[in-house]
Amino acid sequence: MTTIITASYKEKTVKLRLEKETENNFLPRVLVFVFPQFHSDDLNDFLWGKGFTDWDNLKKSPLKNRLGLKIPRPTELGYYDLTEVEPRRKQGELAKQYGIDGFVYHHYWFYDTTHPGPNIHKPLVNMLKDGHPDVPFALHWCASKWTNTWNGQVGPDFVFKEQGVLQKQYFPENDNNGRITAHYNWLRQFFKHPNYIKVNGKPLLMMYMKKPSSFPVLDILRELAVKDGFPGIYITVGLTKPHDHLLDIGDHSQYKTKPQSGTATLNRYSFDKVVSYPNPAEWNEKKSLQVPDWCIDGKAMTSGKKRLRDIAGIISSFDNTPRRSYEEAHLWSSELPVVVLERFRKSLHSAIYYEACCFPNDKTTNRKQDDDRFILINAMNEWAEGMALEPSDVYGRKFLQTILDTKLDTIAAGCNL
After folding, report:
1. pLDDT band at 4 (very low <50, low <70, confident <90, very high)
2. Which percentage of the chain shows pLDDT scores above 90?
């Protein structure tokens, strides 16, 4: 007798496997950046003109880049407005279906007087109102000034006050005027949400770049969180560097942009972890992350290695032709889709295996929601830089399927490289 395996049966089986893994807490949490910019916003109106979103850059871009490869465009979700519930609901459904453990939303808060407070934030506020996407999430504070590096014309009402600077950032040294408290009071509505990602009760707040002048602000935010009943805030910072255990790049001095030091950063400020930020660089072009030799063939138990306080960042793909001139665009991943996907798969598997298997002597918490093991993928929907896990006319759902397959394969094989 022939047994027919239906799609619904497969989906239920996969769901049960992922739920069982969550109970056992074998794998790290796989998080994905989400770019909230796809909606009308006062700041973008001011900088680029009324109604601008990053879809404008993608729509006006050529069908192919200078190497003749197609520039991905959205299919199933379309050119959405993230203030609307339906595209956010669909994003959440995709995350659950394909094993994404949480979204990390870019958070734009300026202390500069031009546009103080939250910006490009309407989808986040609407999420609190309508509950979608209904998935774990955290915020990633892009606490940097904005410079005009795009190949775009500024809005008719915008005048540069400083050459090339679109929006300045400023960090107060204290909270005498209550500006940091105002920031915390805005953040706390998310921190208090049951879906907000935490580590041992501490809300996860990621920083885009190391900004020493922001350290007093972070200290006060932590103090305010404690007063608010949290044990603190779990703060990470993105650095321009490779993950030292997963990508050997040789002599750092050979590169034009010198990699930053995770050790030096952690010694200077009490970040909980650094992030080897998933941006294209000289040292990672056409390379994938690799499980270190000391972690294979049963050597992990006696390696004596310690887990780095470093979150591995993984780039899905990258082609910023929509934001740059045709000839000057950075075509980091302009190869056949099968090559790009395989590089992504290798990096993802290496990062997952590293966190799950390379430190068998570590005592990992039994609760997934308290664990500090993360992997960070760039990105769910950074369409104008070619970084999009969402279904496209080039990759379909293959990036998403790769995430699910890699997690399931690792669960099935265990620590047996």
Report:
1. low
2. 82
Q: What pLDDT score was predicted for residue 113?
A: 87
Confidence of residue 64 (pLDDT cuts 50, 70, 90): very high
User: What's 141's DSSP letter?
Assistant: E
Cβ contact 97:11 at 8 Å: yes
Q: Torsion angle of alpha carbons 302, 303, 309, 313, nearest 10°?
A: -120
396 Rama class: left (phi>0) / alpha (psi -120 to 50) / beta: left
| Pick from 71-80, 98-107, 138-147: least confident | 138-147
Q: For strands 102-110 and 29-34, give the pairing.
A: parallel
Distances (CA, A) of 257 to 212, 239, 252, 266: 20, 12, 9, 20
Residue 203 banded pLDDT, cuts 50, 70, 90: very high
The CA-CA-CA angle for residues 335, 337, 342, to 5°, reads 95
Task: Answer whether 274's CB lies under 8 Å from 311's CB.
Answer: yes
Distance, CA of 41 to CA of 111 (rounded, Å): 18
Q: What is the DSSP string of 253-292?
A: GGSSSPPPPHHHHHHHS--SEEEE-----GGGTT------
For residue 190, pLDDT beyond 80:
yes
pLDDT at 151 over 90: no
Query: Degrees (nearest 5) of the Cα angle 310, 96, 373?
Result: 15
Report which residue type is found at 137.
Answer: F
Q: Of 104, 106, 119, which is closest to residue 166 (Cα–Cα)?
A: 119
SS3 per-residue string spanning 27-59: CCEEEEEECCCCCCCHHHHHHHCCCCCHHHHHH
Give which of 282, 220, 232, 277 is closest to 257, Cα–Cα.
282
Is 402 within 8 Å of 341 (Cβ atoms)?
yes
Taking the C-alpha atoms of residue 308 and residue 314, their distance in angstroms, rounded to an integer, is 16
Cα separation, 233 vs 218, whole angstroms: 9
* Secondary structure element (H or E) that encloses residue 108, with its range: strand 102-110
Q: Which residues pair with 65 in a beta bridge?
A: none
